[in-house]
Amino acid sequence: MLLLKIFLSFFKIGLISFGGGYAMIPLIQKEIIGVQGWLTVNEFLDIIAIAEMTPGPIAINSATYIGYKTAGVIGSVVATLGVVTPSFIAMVILAYIINKTKHLPQIKGALKGIVSGVIALIGYATFKMAIGVDILSIYNFLICLGAFLLFHFTKKHPVLLLIGFGIIGIFIF
Are 28 and 45 spatial neighbours (Cβ–Cβ below 8 Å)? Predict the structure, then answer.
């Protein structure tokens, strides 16, 4: 019964959450602390901090950790499945619809518009990050340009470039 409650709680969170992992945090908090009473506020804050530090989406990381804290390894699997299942179902349905209608001019136009919008969002995020690291300083600009050129022309793995430029940064800064 506990595993079903965990799955349904996280399924509901995944179903009604829009805007990504950070938008899910208040919903997770309300459900896990307020409705279910599985954690205290301090335990929840610790879980959010851990979920933030580990690789991967914060909503999935926190669901996995909360599931583990509540019902062990199987609880972590059940909570993770619960939070990702609504998105998985939505993506399967959308993929099916797009695949069946991709020949229609309206769908082609919509997809081109979405791609353009995504490129704009990525560009905006890049711009905001560039301002945050003072890209106009000569060293930051040269490192950024060097990383871009190396990645573009050598196709080296991004992790290798990050390590290399991190080492360069130690000596420059």
Answer: no
The residue from 83, 101, 119 where one domain ends is 101
| Neighbouring C-beta atoms of residue 168, cutoff 10 Å | 15
Domain containing 79 equals: 2-101
Q: What is this structure's pTM?
A: 0.66
Q: Is-contact 165 151, C-beta < 8 A? A: no
pLDDT tens per residue across span 10-30: 999 998 876 667 778 888 899
Residues 136 and 62 in one domain: no
Helix intervals (H) in the chain: 2-16, 21-29, 41-53, 58-101, 105-132, 138-154, 158-172
How many domains does the chain contain in total?
2
